[in-house]
Amino acid sequence: MRLAVISDIHGNIRALEAVLAHIQALGDIDRLVVAGDLLSGPLEPSETAHALMGLDAAVIRGNHERQLLACASAPGGESDQYAFEHTTNVQRAWLARLPATLELAPDVLVCHGTPETDLVYLCEELGTPVTLATDEVITARLAGNRQGLVVSGHSHHPRTVRLSTGQLVVNAGSVGLQAFTAEHPRRHHVENGSPHARFVVCERTPTGWQAEQHQVSYDWDAASAVAARHGRADWARWLRSGRV
Ligand SMILES: [Mn+2]
User: Fold this and answer.
1) Distance of CA 232 to CAs 52, 59, 82, 243, Å?
2) How far is the CA of 153 from the centre of ligand 1 (A)?
């Protein structure tokens, strides 16, 4: 079984299209998985929703899908509000139907953050920059889930972590945004050091699950220009450099 896992697209249609073309060219993929944070950001949320809704893929929601939908009752953060205002009712109804986690096979769990919350990084400790959490902490965050492969997103930090339980915990990284600063629950930042879109291919082999992390070129200058045009100098910088 070979899974292509993409996550944290954040409305970056150019990065998404480049990654989907790359996956198509790889061939031999049994299932495409999308691990949440699909649209929020100052780019092209509606075009991204349209592309995702047309895919034959297993899709879960992230924290930003919840936050985007909550903009219906109260103003949200800048990125969620922009995506809320630039998507259709049909697209938002689709978001509302997405599950928070998915057991794709008896030995495969997909979640956005941890299995219990979409707001906590599964593999990282907050700081500037974030660091790798200990084996014990990651195992505790799995809350008894013992699947051989656990795939997440949320931190935008591609990782492959083998736990002492034998489980492989994989972060798909982010298709759409390679660096960011966040204030909650306390100030931290992530920076991957290049603007390339990230995704991962996970394969079940006779000796267990393996992960191949991929980096894909796309027109990040064009994406950066869209962010700048929409008043987000921070996103413009993050998109073109992969640094905060
Ligand atoms: Mn995200």
Assistant:
1) 24, 28, 11, 15
2) 7
The pTM of the full predicted model, rounded to 2 decimals, is 0.97
Q: Kindly give the distance from the C-alpha atom of residue 207 to the centroid of ligand 1, in angstroms, as a whole number.
A: 32
Residue 87 CA: distances (Å) to CA of 80, 177, 229? 11, 20, 18
pLDDT band at 127 (very low <50, low <70, confident <90, very high): confident
The residue among 12, 14, 23, 11 whose CA lies nearest residue 199 is 23
Would you state the pLDDT for residue 21?
Answer: 98
The answer to whether residues 170 and 180 touch, using CB atoms and an 8 Å cutoff, is no
Domains, the chain, in order of start with CATH, read: 2-241 (3.60.21.10)
Q: What is the per-residue pLDDT for 185?
A: 86
Helix, strand, or coil here: 68?
helix
Which protein residues have their CB within 5 A of the ion that is ligand 1? 8, 37
Alpha carbon distance 113, 130 (integer Å):
15
pLDDT digits (tens, 9 = 90+) for 169-204: 999 999 999 999 998 889 999 999 999 999 999 999
Residue type, 187: R
Using DSSP's 3-state secondary structure scheme, residue 192 falls into coil
User: What distance in angstroms lies between residue 206's CA and the mean position of ligand 1's atoms?
Assistant: 33
